[in-house]
Amino acid sequence: MSLSQTLLPEFDHEMANTRKVLERIPDDKLAWKAHEKSNTIGWVGMHLAEIPGWVDVSLNQPSFDVAPPGGQIYKTPAATSRKAILDIFDKNVAAARAAIAKADDSRLLQSWSLLSGGKTIFTMPRVGVLRSFVLNHSIHHRAHLCVYLRLNNVPVPALYGPSADESGM
Asked: What is the number of domains present in the chain?
């Protein structure tokens, strides 16, 4: 079995769970944040929507610089609605899944680097980038969003088993 075929079931599972959480974002709370230093619900939702879009960059470019010297700093686009977040997420997930499915083992074992200002933040095999920079990063921010939902009395969906909201606890 190829590396891409071993990644796809996990990718599908985690993206389905992420979509369940994104579906709960209330349009009237996009600007809400837990603390002055925190990001808004809208930012977290849009960040989750954009993360699968990084698969193409990770598989088809040798690196990505979030703040290229002399260039524009990467910024998460502003969220305008739950529907807009879901539309971007669905588009990025479909493209990411197709890119993973066609990636051969030799491509997945090649190194890829994340840079900031021309300096390397990390370098690892692309398969590791997909697991950490895409999947684990999504799981991290999905949990972040679940806390925001809970703080706003929005029921949290079941992800790996029943949630307190869905089990009647």
From this structure: 1
**For residue range 47-105, what is the model confidence (pLDDT) as tens digits?**
999 999 999 999 999 999 999 999 999 999 999 999 999 999 999 999 999 999 999 99
Burial class (CB in 10 A: 0-12, 13-18, 19+), 102: exposed
Q: Where are the beta strands (DSSP E) in 62-153?
A: 63-65, 111-116, 119-125
Q: Answer left, alpha or beta for residue 113, where phi above 0 means left and psi between -120 and 50 means alpha.
A: beta
Q: What is the CATH number of the domain that holds 102?
A: 1.20.120.450
Can you give the residue range of the structural domain that contains 29? 3-167
